[in-house]
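Open question from group meeting: does this chain pack into something compact, or does most of it stay loose? Before anyone orders reagents, we agreed to write out a predicted structure and look at it together. Recording both the input and the output here so the notebook holds the full record.
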Amino acid sequence: MNQATLILIVLALGLLIYAWSRGDGSHRKGITQGWSTLKRTLMLLVVAFVIVGYVNVLGPQDLVRDWIGPGSGWRGLLIGTAAGMLLPGGPYVVFPLIATLYQAGAGLGPTLAIITSWAALALLTVSFELPFLGWRFTLMRLGLGVVIPPLVGLVGQLLFGG
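Structure tokens returned:
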């Protein structure tokens, strides 16, 4: 059990105790809603972790190190930015994939660029953004935002190495 899991367990127990102490059935409602969320997302989590397992086993570590490794320079930062834009799904899918790439030899800078790009520029969000905000806004956001992930990666490399 890692530290994050322990913190989440303590937090969940604290919330359970607080909900139970209210005496209004909140503890049962919280468990019911949590179970419902788990049922909706369980298949997504299982599939995501299976993909992570295959990427880990089948992924060519030499290729990862060559393209986005610590010595990949600007090329690695730009590839990381592009990769982050293309990653599908939410954090339960994306972070295990990024962690696998990092463990396979991706450099700190490209990894930071991937995470930042996914959070700020994911192309899947465009389909939601366009109907509400239009082409002009979407293109401005993407155009201005595309410089941020490589810069975050570069600063990470300069400050912390790798």
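Observations to bring back to the group:
Residues 1-43 form one domain.
Residues 84 and 117 are 5 Å apart (CA to CA).
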